[in-house]
Amino acid sequence: MQLRKLGNCLKLPNMAQVFISFIHEEGETAAAVQKFVNQMLGGQGNAFLSSDKFQVYAGENWLDRILEELEAAKVVLLILSEKSVTRPWVNFEAGAGWFTKKKIIPICIKELDKENLPKPYSSLQAIDLKYTDEQLYMIRSIAHHLGVEEPEIVSRFGAGLAILGGPEVIKKVELQQECLEQFGKDLKSAARVEKFLEKHGDNLKKGGTMTLKDLLGGSDNLPEEK
Questions:
Q1: How many CA atoms lie within 13 Å of 204's alpha carbon, on the beta-carbon side?
Q2: CA distances from 148 to 44, 143, 151 (A)
Q3: Where are the domains of the chain?
Q4: 63 CB contacts (<8 Å, ≥6 apart)?
Q5: pLDDT value at position 149?
Q6: Which CATH number applies to 3-195?
């Protein structure tokens, strides 16, 4: 798939430059953000998820690895909802980033709006992830803080004037547009999965008490993706 070229054109560094903080109930959204950042920055800003088994290996000291990644990162993305904004671990990671002078970007999801962020997060320029222009603003901000070139589609004029750059630039913008559209779909899919697991996760963990068919059979089943 062509989207992979965005994230795989350069070898990703061992230590990530972008640290994504989240609670496990919102891991699908965090994974979508990680994928989007890696693809849009084309390997210039590898993003780290603390729960990703391909980034934290068996036998590693998990806390030490988290602290190492926080220390190495230049940007910390906080995935914040009404639920996660009060969780101790997210606040711990935010505090660690704050005191080590990282650029901290609050990312508001679900029902949480930027206007309702509690202090000290409300003092930071935040992102409302439900809006496309905010998604591009997030990428532009990360690129700025990392000191790397921002994607052509993020530029105010770059996408519109891509034709002046020739076939190669046009192709990049087309791939970036495809990536942006896929990110919107990934966010919707993540929200459906997280909502489903929030409602039925305990039943699934018990095993045998309910079948997946039973869980999907009611009026609260997962809606089809449009």
A1: 10
A2: 7, 5, 9
A3: 3-195
A4: none
A5: 87
A6: 3.40.50.10140
Q: Tell me the C-alpha distance between 193 and 169, whole Å.
A: 36
Q: Can you read off the two tokens belonging to residue 158?
A: 């770059």
User: Tokens standing for 172?
Assistant: 């990049």
CA separation for the pair 189, 74 (Å, rounded): 29
Contact by Cβ (8 Å): 106, 121: yes
Tens digits of per-residue pLDDT, 2-32? 544 444 433 444 678 999 999 989 999 999 9
**Which residue bears the tokens 């896929």?**
182
Query: pTM for the full model?
Result: 0.80
Tokens of 97: 């980033």
In whole angstroms, give the CA distance from residue 226 to residue 224.
Answer: 6
State the DSSP string of 57-122: -TTS-HHHHHHHHHHH-SEEEEEE-TTGGG-HHHHHHHHHHHHTT-EEEEEE-TT--GGGPPTTGG
CA 217 vs CA 194, 211, 220: distances in Å: 18, 10, 8
The tokens for 125 are: 């320029």
